[in-house]
Amino acid sequence: MRPSFVNLTKPFIAAVITESDPDSFIATMRNAEYDGADAFDIHLRSLERQYHTINDLTRIIQCTDKPTLMINYRGDSKWEGQRTDEERVESHLLAVRAGASACDIMGDMFDPSPMELTRKPQAIDRQKKLIDKIHSQGAEVIMSSHTWVAMTTEQVLEHLKELESRGADMVKVAAAVNSEEELLEAFRTTVALKREMKVPFIHICMGQHGKLHRFVGPMLGSSLIFCVQQYTPKGHKEQPLVRAARAVLDNLDWRVARSALQEGKS
Questions:
Q1: Is the omega angle on the peptide bond into residue 233 within 30 degrees of 0, that is, cis?
Q2: Is residue 36 situated within a structural domain?
Q3: pTM for this one?
Q4: Spatial CB neighbours of 66, under 8 Å, sequence gap ≥ 6
Q5: Is 255 exposed, middle or buried (0-12, 13-18, 19+ CB in 10 A)?
Q6: Do 72 and 44 touch, CB atoms closer than 8 A?
Q7: Which of 146, 245, 261, 262 is deepest in the core (most CB within 10 A)?
Q8: Cα(104)–Cα(121) distance, integer angstroms
Q9: Which of 222, 186, 185 is CA-nearest to residue 203?
Q10: pLDDT number for residue 263
Q11: CA distances from 128 to 96, 163, 197 (A)
Q12: Which domain, by its residues, includes 146?
C-alpha cells in the first residue's frame, strides 16, 4: 500500500530532490528526513537517463516510508531524446509502477500554453483520461501551473478551479510576487482559496518578495512548504531549508483554538 501524499496532515514539508543518480537521491532524502521532511518531491528531469528504469526508480521510492511526488516539467530536461509530453507521461507511469504516491501533471500537458493552462477541449480530455489512468494504478494526481506573473485573487481562484474540474486530487499554482503590495494580495488569495477550493491546494509565490509567503501561506491554508535539504550551486535558492521550515512550524503558535472558531460563527 503506497502512502498518500494528498492526505498527509497539513501543512507538511516536502523536500525537493534534484540529484542525478539513485545513490545521491537516497542520501539526500535520508538527510532531509532527519531534518524533518514529511514527503519528497522527486524531480525526474534531474535523474540521468541511464537510471530511468523500474529498478532504479523503485530503489529511490522505496528508500523511505514517506510519500513521493514525481515531477517532470518540460523545458529543462537533461534527457537526450525526451522532447514530447507523451514521453513525460511515460516517465510518470513508470514511476507509478515503481510505487510513487503521486504525479504532478502540468495544467497545459499535451498543449503548451500561456500560464501553463490549456483551454483546448481535446487536450483537457486527454488530461482527464491520464488522470483516470494514474488513479486506476493506485496513485494520486496533482495538477500544477507555473505562471511566472503576478496574479490577483480572482485570477488564481479561477485558474485553480479550472484545474480542480479536471479531476485532480490536489491543485497547485506558482505565481510571481514582485512587491509588498503583491505579497499582501497573495496572502488574501490564500485565505480565499481556503474558503472556496474543494480539493487541497498549493499556493506558491516566486521571487524575493514571495519568500515570506512560503512560510506563512501554509499557515493560511496552503497544503505544504516545498524545501531543499541544503543549498547547492545549481539548486533552488528561494525555497527554505527543511530544518528551517520544521523549526518554524514546530515553534510558531499560529493554530486557532476551536473555542475561538466557534465564537466566530456565533
A1: no
A2: yes
A3: 0.95
A4: 3, 33, 37, 38, 39, 40
A5: exposed
A6: yes
A7: 245
A8: 20
A9: 222
A10: 72
A11: 17, 10, 19
A12: 12-265
Q: Is 67 exposed, middle or buried (0-12, 13-18, 19+ CB in 10 A)?
A: buried
Strands 224-227 and 12-17, how do they pair?
parallel
Is residue 206 over pLDDT 80? yes
- Per-residue cell: 168: 485532480
Residue type, 23: D
> Is residue 18 within a helix (H) or strand (E), and if so which, with residue range?
none
Query: CA triplet 132, 134, 137: central angle to 5 degrees?
Result: 110
Q: What is the number of domains present in the chain?
A: 1
Strand, helix or coil at 105?
strand
**Cα 202 to Cα 208: distance, rounded to the nearest angstrom:** 18
Q: How far apart are CA 68 and CA 29, in angstroms?
A: 10
Does residue 120 lie within any of the structural domains? yes
Which amino acid belongs to residue 29? M
pLDDT tier at 131, thresholds 50, 70, 90: very high
Whole-angstrom Cα distance, residue 3 to residue 95? Answer: 14
User: Would 2 be classed as within a structural domain?
Assistant: no
- Is the pLDDT at 80 greater than 50? The verdict is no
User: Residue 3: inside a domain, yes or no?
Assistant: no
